[in-house]
Automatic annotation (TrEMBL):
<feature type="domain" description="Response regulatory">
    <location>
        <begin position="4"/>
        <end position="125"/>
    </location>
</feature>
<dbReference type="InterPro" id="IPR001789">
    <property type="entry name" value="Sig_transdc_resp-reg_receiver"/>
</dbReference>
<keyword id="KW-0597">Phosphoprotein</keyword>
<feature type="modified residue" description="4-aspartylphosphate">
    <location>
        <position position="58"/>
    </location>
</feature>
<dbReference type="InterPro" id="IPR052893">
    <property type="entry name" value="TCS_response_regulator"/>
</dbReference>
<protein>
    <submittedName>
        <fullName>CheY chemotaxis protein or a CheY-like REC (Receiver) domain</fullName>
    </submittedName>
</protein>
<dbReference type="InterPro" id="IPR011006">
    <property type="entry name" value="CheY-like_superfamily"/>
</dbReference>
<dbReference type="Pfam" id="PF00072">
    <property type="entry name" value="Response_reg"/>
</dbReference>
<dbReference type="GO" id="GO:0000160">
    <property type="term" value="P:phosphorelay signal transduction system"/>
</dbReference>
Length: 135
């Protein structure tokens, strides 16, 4: 299965770590990137064909943070179907609850090892594709 993944994060190192993890777990994945929610919205609205299959979203970013971005795409008829996985340093239960209420499919607190990352990504993909099948 060929997957298109949008990674929205303002930290280039985190983008590269996540990209490498995604490619290890889903070898046919192609990743595209945005450094904040505002840029991600512009990117998504410019796509004519082939929307991302999954969005990995950091919460703490400049210009438009992850929660505002999540709220915006879940209100957008063209984008609301795309599963969003929160990928953040936050371990706060409040953030998990708020993002779930806003429509996030899954929540990952950024792991400290590659092994933990790969396990978290495998679970996130399973959740996202299970949700897609239900629709």
């Amino acid at each position: 299965m060929h997957l298109l993944i949008l990674i929205v994060d303002d930290d280039q190192d985190d983008i590269e770590i996540l990209r490498d993890g995604v490619r290890e777990v889903e070898t046919n994945a192609q990743c595209i990137y945005a450094h904040n929610g505002e840029d991600a919205l512009h990117l998504l609205h410019s796509i004519v064909h082939g929307m991302p299959d999954v969005i990995f979203l950091d919460l703490n970013m400049p210009r438009m943070d992850g929660k505002k971005f999540l709220e915006a795409i879940k209100k957008d008829e063209k984008l609301s179907h795309i599963p969003v996985v929160i990928y953040t340093t936050s371990k706060l239960e409040k953030d998990k609850e708020e993002t779930k209420a806003l429509g996030a499919a899954h929540f990952i607190s950024k792991p400290t090892t590659i092994s933990e990352l790969n396990k978290a990504l495998a679970k996130a993909f399973a959740v996202c594709f299970k949700n897609e099948i239900k629709r």
